[in-house]
Specification:
This protein has about 200 residues and is an alpha/beta fold. The chain folds into 2 domains: about 30 residues; about 160 residues, Glutaredoxin, CATH 3.40.30.10. About 40% of the residues lie in helices and about 20% in strands. The chain has 6 helices and 9 strands. The strands form 3 sheets. The protein has a 5-stranded mixed sheet with strand order 5-4-3-8-9. The protein has a two-stranded antiparallel ribbon with strand order 1-2. It has a two-stranded antiparallel sheet with strand order 6-7. Helix 3 packs across helix 6. It is globular.
Length: about 200
């Protein structure tokens, strides 16, 4: 009888451990789980969200107006001497690679330097990078709110000087309509890397 109870206890323990493993390890219905590589403190829901900014025509827009298709989103500024142009060109190349694979993706560039980056300046910059690129600026409060939503960092150095520089983070965010933020890409990744990793998410939309 003791042996019988021992077997029952063992079986119940195994069932409990199996159920616990399922709860802990299951993908929680996340269809993008096979694509995710970044570890995000607070989870993917902690990044992204509503924003209100100004587009290249001077029109006030929201995230609902902008994120109408899969989007590669980048924060920077047009006076940036090297990083921003290179990263935006890289993102534009990734968009073209995804187009070749049948995916309609748009690049978006949000300025963290609204003092100098007027809608006209943003239009000139994005037109040089890619015909599909959307440039967004806004008031200092609007830009700060958008930056905080995506947990980006920026700091204007010596703003009293004419040719000041801005420290800023350099992540590119993949944002999907009706889904939101799903992944971020570091700047050391190539256009091919970003296109390949993005395609994994896009084929699961």
């Amino acid at each position: 009888m003791t042996r019988f109870y021992a077997k029952v206890a063992t079986a119940l323990t195994l069932c409990f451990l199996g159920a616990l493993a399922f709860v802990v390890l299951r993908p929680n219905g996340d269809r993008f789980a096979p694509c995710r590589e970044s570890v995000i403190s607070g989870g993917v829901d902690s990044i992204g969200g509503p924003f209100t900014l100004v587009d290249e025509t001077g029109t006030t827009v929201t995230d609902q107006d902008i994120i109408t298709k899969p989007t590669l989103l980048y924060f920077g500024y047009t006076f940036c001497p090297d990083v921003c142009p290179l990263d935006n060109v890289r993102n534009a190349q990734a968009v073209d690679l995804l187009t070749d694979r049948g995916y309609d993706v748009q690049p978006v560039f949000i300025s963290v330097d609204p003092k100098r980056d007027t809608p006209e300046v943003m239009a000139d910059f994005t037109d040089l990078i890619h015909p599909k690129m959307i440039g967004l600026t806004g008031s200092e409060a609007q830009v700060k709110a958008a930056s905080q939503a995506y947990r980006t960092y920026f700091k204007i150095n010596t703003p009293e000087e004419e040719f000041y520089l801005v420290d800023h983070s350099t992540f590119t965010y993949l944002v999907l309509p009706k889904v939101g933020f799903v992944e971020f890409f570091r700047r050391e990744l190539s256009a091919e890397d970003i296109a390949e990793k993005s395609a994994c998410f896009l084929e699961r939309m």
